[in-house]
Amino acid sequence: MAAAVLLIAPAASIAKEQSLSQLDRILLIRGLDREVAVAKVALPRGKHGLFINDKGQIDEERAKKELQANGPAIQPGIPVEITKIQFKNHAVVFEINNGGKSRKKWYQHIEIGMGGMMQPIDQNQQQNPIAYGSSITLTFPGKKVPNLSVDQAKQLLSVALDFHRKLPTELYSPKVPEKFKEAIKNHQVLVGMDRDAVLSAKGTPFRKVRETKPNGEETEDWLYGLPPHVLFVTFSGDTVIKVQQY
Questions:
Q1: Which DSSP helix (H) or strand (E) runs through 224?
Q2: CA distance 132 to 145
Q3: Which of 105, 170, 198, 246 is most buried, by the most CB atoms less than 10 A from its CB?
Q4: Pair 101, 107: CB distance under 8 Å
């Protein structure tokens, strides 16, 4: 019996030291890509974002420096979406709301014209467009990223993100106007709803587009569906200010 224990123990030790497998990467992407949560802390602008170690602890000093240097991209209490997952030797990077790196939108790469004369379809694009997202990096100092399940990743991220979204039944409270309750039941969006109500009514949008107007007001459009039938839901802060169906 003692010999059997000696044979099993090394195998268990090796299993613990195994790095993240290809299958685990696929499962993490399937389970967390486009996952919606609510920010529990401020997420800084810029390409660095927030860092959380393998014990689920935020690097507070680094976060403070990033917030002081770049300001917050996302405030606590705002719904966010994981839009990309990158795997590195000692870390996993979760891009939040399309990340904090400034880059062109997909449609800004399209040009039209004839006779050799081409011009972009977006005539108002900026040379260095502003990025409105952030990122959260799970770090594993001194070791490769271990086998990591979706639940384990969520547990580590839970210090910064709340994955327990409000269910429609939770919105049926005296504080919610009756017309919003009926709209949620019928999967409709109305002006005056907040983000949680829209998520409960329609789910995760196909695309999000943020815009800063000349007066400094920031708006965000949530797009549902594909052309020619697209629903545009426009937010100012946490409130729907316009709903357009095309």
A1: strand 218-224
A2: 28
A3: 198
A4: no
Q: Which two tokens stand for residue 228?
A: 């020619």
Domain positions in the chain: 17-104+120-162, 168-245
Alpha-carbon distance of 67 to 104, in angstroms, equals: 24
Structure tokens at 45: 């602008």
Instruction: From first to last of the 246 residues of the chain, give the pLDDT tens digit.
Output: 444 444 444 333 334 556 899 999 999 999 999 888 888 888 998 889 999 999 999 999 999 999 999 888 887 777 788 999 999 999 999 999 889 876 555 555 566 666 666 666 555 555 555 567 899 999 999 899 999 999 999 999 999 998 876 555 555 667 778 898 888 877 889 999 988 888 878 877 878 898 888 888 889 999 987 677 889 999 998 899 999 988
Nearest of 229, 226, 227, 222 to residue 245 by alpha carbon: 229
Is the CA virtual torsion 159, 164, 170, 176 positive or negative?
positive
Burial label for 4, CB within 10 Å (0-12, 13-18, 19+), is: exposed
What is d(CA 108, CA 40) in angstroms, rounded to the nearest whole number?
33
CATH of 168-245, one of 3.30.300.70, 2.40.160.20, 1.10.443.10, 3.30.1450.10: 3.30.1450.10
Please list the residues that pair with 135 across neighbouring strands. Answer: 95
This prediction has a pTM of: 0.57
- For the chain, the C-alpha Rg in angstroms (whole number) is 22
